[in-house]
Task: structure prediction
Amino acid sequence: MPEKAEPAVVKTEPAEAKAEPVPAEAAAAVPSPQAGTPAPVAAPDRFAGGTRAKLEFSHRIDYDTLNDLIQQVVESGKIVKPTAEFELDRPGYEEGDTAAYRDWTVRVEAPPEETSQLVSAIQARLEATPFFPSASTIGGKVAGSTRVQAIYALLGSLLCIVGYLWVRFQRVMYGLAAVVALVHDVLIALGLIALSAYVASFLGFLLIDPFKIGLSELAAFLTIIGYSLNDTIIVFDRIREVRGKAPQLTKDMINTSINQTLSRTLLTSATTLLVIVILYIGGGKGIHGFAFALLIGIVVGTYSSIYIASPILLWMSQSSSRDEAARQRVSGV
Result:
């Protein structure tokens, strides 16, 4: 059953249950309840003065939801002027953060009386909105079943990749070499995400956070697989053209094919990395983990197509040729 989200204005600054006006000269700081000294406000000043009120909610609410709700009440023009400015902030909040919190601080370009009415209108709207509680903990039985299904899906997708490359290049070794490179790319990206929890404390200047595996990181892994597979197919296609009807694949053929596709590979990777670096630096906290995984994956996928997939293809081709020669000698005897 849905529950009602019931926010409560538990405290304003400094009086309880009332909004306190903030003078223009003191708009950049609020009293700290612990130390009694001014603490900087995280949000930038878009206006001077105004009224600040602290809100606490019975359920967590994210910035976008609360900001849109306040915007609707303000734009209605029933309490404050529709063009009234407001700021929403809390300790530890950064722009782009999608996490939900129980407490927020709102600052409105309005006198205390109008701000109190505005908060009451927000509370009334939230009380009329159904709230559906959600659980983020998955039981052991469900988790085990999901894990088994994920393994089946992974194996099935790898078999499909092998089958596709087998049909396209007429040899199964192309598909096996590409799959080995793909597994390598994903494992490297996964390992560096796990390592970030240990190095984030002293590599913060590189914008490295203690990343965790989530939906955005999973999307990055899928993107890495698609990018790396496409790059590998380009190299393999040139290898097939250089080989032509030659009975055996050689090192010189691999080297010639890689040299012919190297400029294309590096230019494509460089332009892709340019976009990913911009996302990583200025994309915000919401996609920071996605951009980090993609940044690692693009770099790893570029060199794996050259230094992993191609040598493995050569090794498989030579092993197949030796086996075929051994069978012919046995048949001749």
